[in-house]
Design goal:
The protein is built from twelve helices and 13 strands. It is α/β, with parallel strands linked by helices and 395 residues long.
């Protein structure tokens, strides 16, 4: 039985002290070669897709605000540009950059992902995330957010803020999806004899009018190879689960044990029912941060060393697993039995844990069959165009 595996790439790894490891490459973090090497290692090892982390502010050990630490990696390259650079250097692996919905315009997101889909010949995706950080909002100067804490977000006022952010994200995803459909597949004619490059009747206004966006369309980019690149959302609670149910193809959950795995999967299905999702159910994948060594003792020693250098134990929304590849496989198998259809592994150290994944974890599972596009590789049907044969929407 096949099992899709993704790897989440972030800087020198998901542990903040990973950049100090012997095999780390801190001098190369802001070079194209570094990211190309990581993605090609993942592709050569049979990984189905990589996600590339991004944000609109510097990394921080504090919640919702910047810190003044100088002993951890700070700074990023743009995830969508990294993906576009490595696209022609790879052949099979899916490329899924993180792009925020809160400040960028949906029109720009749509054309960015469409361009990546062309550059990768149909292997693009998009991990949509929100940003409610006041200090990130100050980079743009168009809106303000209140200061908040984890505790305040759990109260009524915090829920109001979250609902607004995620409702906006749902609208942004809808706009992006409409723009992806705004050109029919055969809109480009390229008939030199008649002088017609496009069939104008096959470009469509999307006419989206909502509380947050009013977008006419069509896109400036022709419909890309997949038509609809896959959309993924990381979700931890009710409101993000509903966002995923409304607009995503894949949802990344963060269970810590089998009971949690069952509970999260149940919440995802409940969210689908509440929002009235129709068609294909969400693909539910589970996230795990991994430190992998030949023995459990060695893996825990590595994690202890990293925690000591960071000055605190690694805090993560996902389970932090320190052990052997075989034990990790057993864990994933137990969660697959619950109903998860894929997994996204977050290497604590790059490249060490990535190599462990491709050499000792991926071979334990049958990989999906090779296919020209990411949609096909993961078993998604061809994407229909909502505007086909609707003359009243023709541009």
């Amino acid at each position: 039985m096949t099992l899709p595996l993704a790897v989440a790439l972030d800087g020198a790894g998901w542990h903040p002290a990973a950049w100090r490891e012997q095999n780390a490459r801190p001098r190369d973090l802001f070079t194209a070669r570094y990211w190309a090497d990581l993605v090609r290692t993942a592709e050569d090892g049979g990984i189905d897709l990589v996600t590339i982390e991004d944000s609109l502010g510097l990394q921080s050990s504090a919640f919702g605000r910047p810190d003044d630490r100088v002993d951890q990696v700070r700074g990023r390259l743009d995830a969508s540009l990294i993906a576009s650079f490595v696209a022609p250097l790879t052949n099979r692996i899916g490329l899924v950059p993180t792009i925020t919905t809160t400040h960028p315009e949906p029109f720009h997101v749509a054309t960015t992902v469409q361009t990546l889909d062309y550059a990768s010949r149909g292997r693009a995706g998009w991990r949509a995330q929100v940003s409610g950080s006041p200090f990130e909002a100050k980079h743009f100067g168009r809106r303000e957010f209140p200061e908040f804490t984890i505790e305040s977000l759990r109260g009524p006022a915090g829920e109001t803020v979250l609902r607004e952010l995620f409702d906006e994200a749902a609208d942004a995803i809808e706009v992006v999806r409409r723009l992806w459909d705004s050109w029919e597949d055969d809109a480009i004619i390229r008939d030199a004899a008649t002088g017609r490059f496009i069939d104008r009747e096959k470009l469509h206004y999307i006419d989206f009018a909502g509380e947050r966006f009013s977008v006419k369309g069509p896109s400036i980019t022709p419909r890309s190879p997949q038509g609809q690149p896959l959309v993924a959302v990381l979700a931890h609670q009710t409101i993000p689960h509903e966002l995923a149910a409304r607009g995503a193809d894949i949802v990344f959950g963060t269970p810590h044990d089998e009971a949690g795995a069952r509970g999260i999967l149940g919440e995802i299905r409940d969210a689908e029912s509440r929002v009235g999702r129709t068609g294909r159910p969400l693909e539910a994948w589970a996230d795990v941060v991994v430190v992998l060594e030949e023995t459990t003792a060695a893996a825990r020693a590595v994690l202890d060393r990293l925690d000591e250098r960071a000055g605190a134990p690694l805090a993560s929304d996902a389970l932090v697993f320190a052990g052997t590849p075989g034990d990790l496989v057993d864990l994933l198998e137990s969660w697959r039995a619950v109903g998860y259809t894929g997994f996204r592994l977050r290497p604590a150290r790059l490249p060490d844990d990535l190599r462990q994944i491709v050499e000792h974890v991926r071979p334990r599972f049958a990989a999906p069959a090779d296919a020209p596009t990411l949609r096909e590789r993961l078993g998604f049907e061809p994407a229909a165009n909502r505007y086909t044969d609707t003359e009243e929407n023709a541009a």
